Records
---
Amino acid sequence: NIGAALQVVTMRGWSRAHWYDETDLLWVPPSPGIPHFDTTVVYPGTCLIEGTNVTEGRGTPLPFEIIGAPWIDGEALAAALNAQRLDGVRFRAVQFTPSDWKYPHQLCQGVQVHVTAREGVRPVTMGLHLIRTLREMYPGQFVWRAEHFDSLIGNTSTREQLEHGVKVETITAAWEDEQAAFRARSRA
């Protein structure tokens, strides 16, 4: 209802189940923050870290694949996240020094997200688990950039629910009806 003349062009040699690296196309980074295809698998979740005082790895070779801060214990964070057995991902403790953005030239500890089964990854759910775990482990250091987080996630209620200790599974379950309706509309 915006008055746009929309034309849908059917792609040949592609199906919704294909991943970009299953095409014969060369990867062209759409942003300096997404330097290679693997980043796209985790980006929808790790970009939520932008809405906090934790670095999302900008200023390193692995933006959005590593997250951390000077006050994080990477080994402890990796253990806590791996204990949650999130589908399709594992976490490895890392140390890194961003060249810019958050914590420039400061040694940070954190985790690198390793995708083990990309079909099973729920990146936004993973991102919410990252944030919930960080808030629980570092209540004195973790700080929201609330307006930015709310803009990224699309509402204020997700942050508010995390602040009140609501489980990530409860938060995301509330989205299922909306997701199903969107899929039905968009694929019709």
Note: Residues 38 and 139 are 31 Å apart (CA to CA).
---
Amino acid sequence: KLDGGDILDMDNHFAYIIGYPDGLVRPGQNISREEVATIFFRLLTEEARNSLMKKTNDFADVENTRWSNNAISTMAGYGTIKGYEDGTFKPSQAITRAEFVAMTVRYYDLFNDVTFGATTKKYTDVTTNYWAVKEISYAKNIGWLNGYADGTFRGDNNITRAEVVAVVNRATGRSADEDYINKKFTKLNRFTDVNDSSKWYFADINEAANEHIGITTSEGET
């Protein structure tokens, strides 16, 4: 196992959101399982990619010509992503909130030692025998997650692209420099559907879409 710093570069913040050819990022749209696998793959250091780069996998529905094959194969090799009991990965299927949290915790374990504590009941709809209760509890305790106003988590619901970016930023220690983004917005890689700075996801998506050196201070990232 590589050291944590060899997996994730804490200073060089790679761009892991590219968007679509039409210039949109579609923040409120669902995100697929293969798109999430690709995010984790893009966040790996070059050393980590080369250490365990794979171009084949055991999933019955991920052929080696698929656009996401290398990302899926490599992240499966790292144990970050898992398939279903029928041997499929269902790459184009929208990922659920619980599936995404489980993947993120497994990814986080590559560069931090994850120890599961008591599965404290944080959400009214996450029972102690729910398949992802440990991962959801861990992510909630570490401060990655917000639930809904009614106290639920709705783990079987699909998660949006903006919600994914917000959690990935928290899990990888990235916190957007909002002053810089607002001042330099016209010079950044940006999307035509993310141009309103009042939106809750505005800073997070711009953080994720622009490669930069991030310096963390007591006041956040610069």
Note: The first strand starts at residue 12 and ends at 13.
---
Amino acid sequence: FMDWWLVEKLVSSRTIAFFVIGDAQTGLGHVYRVLTLSDRLTHHELVFFAPPEADLAIQLLQERGHRVRVVPQNQFGEALQEVKPALVINDCLDTSEDFVRSVRVCGARVLHFEDLGPGALLADRTINALYGEDAERGAEASSIVSGTSWCCLRDEFLDPPAPVRKTLQRVLLVFGGSDPSGLTRKVLQVVDASPDGRLEFQLSDS
């Protein structure tokens, strides 16, 4: 029975290619999502690609034991010809049509995360959980789904929730790696203006 199980795993195994970004400006949310997905795709052959500027993503993937092929984004489609994947997962923000067309040449299915660029319409599926339901683009974008129901939760959220404290001691504000809307500052201003708010904040750029 074990032999049959091994044969079934080998027959069903596919090559999946990831293209991911991650640096001081964009943060590490993209690469952590890729790692979460890879932890659940262990019976497939996984190949990781990242552009040269994605230094933090490359470092984190290598620390987790993955080999990373460093290629510029405009050369990714060409690099896929050697790999011949069944699925390509792009977690690199807003893509162009030219980029996606170059990826599709290899014949693989294409999945995007957090993509508001024109290339999102050319992917087989685009998941924009972060942007909310208003990120959908009508009938022409039937392949685009959005909203919290599509959120990819990391393993730490599977643990039982921490008990509710009656006394507020610490506040953790998390608005992604870059916080483009300046939500951190807005929340700090609201808390600072509260009459009974005596909270000490320590800002970090990590």
Note: The longest strand covers residues 15-20.
